Amino acid sequence: MIWVIIISALVFISAIIIICVNIYYRRKISAFSRELCFILDDMTAEKIPDFTITEDTLDGKINVKLKRLYEILGGKTEQSKRDKLKMQSLVSDISHQVKTPSANLKMYMQILSRQDIDEEKRRGFLNLSAAQAEKLEFLMQALVKMSRLETGIISFNKEKFSVTEIIAVGLAQIALTAEDKNINVRVDCPDGIFMYCDKKWTAEAVFNILDNAVKYTPKNGFIAVSADVNEFYAQIKIKDSGAGISESEQAKIFGRFYRSETVKNTEGLGIGLFLSRNIISEQGGFILVKSEPPDGAEFIVNMPLE
Known about the structure:
The protein has 306 residues and is of the alpha+beta class.
């Protein structure tokens, strides 16, 4: 009989213990669930949650993971905001730049549609329309390249290329313009200098700098193109005999659509140097500018050797 009482007592005590343990853990789980909901609510509302990091417990470990997740999501949110602002800025710039040639074309078309215009004026406005259409096409091509660079769509296929080859591609594109202005283009590029780059895009960057040099060098001036190499970089140096760039503007000229007040009367969009800098920097290189007005300017393209 006594054993029955003892066993019954043990069963009763065990049941009480199980019930107490159950209640305890239900309360713990309930409290943890509430805390988790508060943290998730703060995260979705973009508020900084209160991550209580206690000792090495399950709660503490989960809070550490949640804190890390919040930091990752927060970083992506900030990047998304930056990308959105960058895209808004790009769209705004595109709209601004396209507005002028589009308005000019519309005006010329309206004039050409008139019946009372004579043949000489008609030909003149047709030429003006063609020039504006070419400007619009050039602008759109430049903007496509710019947006592809900024959004990281472009992939660079880098190999070892001769600096002579890259310079030759750029020079071929400015030869006629330089000849029209009687600009003496001097080239000093020793054989055996190589750079690790994407040949097509690097040549595009060099061309943009050469094109600017021709644009801002007066008639009968000169452009000197040379190559050099140091311990880490191969260099392409482009020096012109233009008016030069003031020290205060040397950092600004690589900005998108930036044009100095001193060159407002010279045709241009302010995209070339922006593209060049991005193309070179995306490949691990950089561009230096040296200038002491009015003694021209020198651009030095530095690209890795390997």
